[in-house]
Design goal:
mainly alpha
């Protein structure tokens, strides 16, 4: 069950993002120009990514490192606040961090679920993870991509196709797994 829900949700998210890319993006070019540097939405995504990361780190702190657990909450708060004031392209970097976390979760759960066609499922997850790494390391590329997608119809269609294909693969592999496993995932 832990494999099914995140996989379906993220797959559907990618399909909705594909539809959104084709239908909505050209109409509001000024919003998409500002989005990569958006601080208010970025701080919310950053807080979500930091909290998720703290949860993952908390699971890894064992033995003598367990005494560091009480420090995780203050670290999340301070790091998120510092990110708000010191990082440029906060939305893009936080979104990239979330993509890395989601990819890691999906890969881990697909491995444990013995889903069919895991290699193609893993390929989609790795592509998402690499996109997240680029968003963190060179966020201006996300800005450039948004500009190309809003102006150029070919870029828009190619991006929407890639998003829809990735989302469809995640959903189909998950549904086939549910059918084969008899609803236990």
């Amino acid at each position: 069950m832990t494999f099914i829900i995140p996989s379906l949700l993220f797959g559907l998210f990618l399909v909705v993002a594909a539809v959104f890319t084709v239908r909505v993006m050209p109409a509001h070019q000024d919003i998409w120009r500002r989005l990569p540097r958006e601080r208010k939405a970025g701080i919310l995504l950053a807080l979500l990514a930091m909290a998720w990361s703290a949860f993952e780190v908390n699971l890894m702190l064992e033995g003598s490192l367990a005494r560091l657990r009480p420090l995780l909450v203050p670290i999340v708060i301070v790091t998120t606040l510092l990110s708000y004031f010191l990082l440029d392209y906060l939305f893009t970097r936080a979104l990239g961090g979330l993509l890395l976390l989601i990819s890691s979760l999906l890969l881990h759960q697909a491995f444990g679920a013995f889903a069919p066609a895991r290699w193609i499922y893993a390929l989609v997850c790795y592509v998402v993870a690499v996109a997240g790494m680029f968003m963190i390391g060179s966020p201006y590329r996300f800005r450039d991509w948004l500009e190309k997608v809003t102006v150029n119809r070919q870029w828009r269609l190619a991006s929407a196709t890639a998003l829809a294909l990735g989302g469809t693969i995640l959903v189909v592999v998950t549904v086939v797994h549910v059918v084969q496993a008899g609803g236990n995932g």
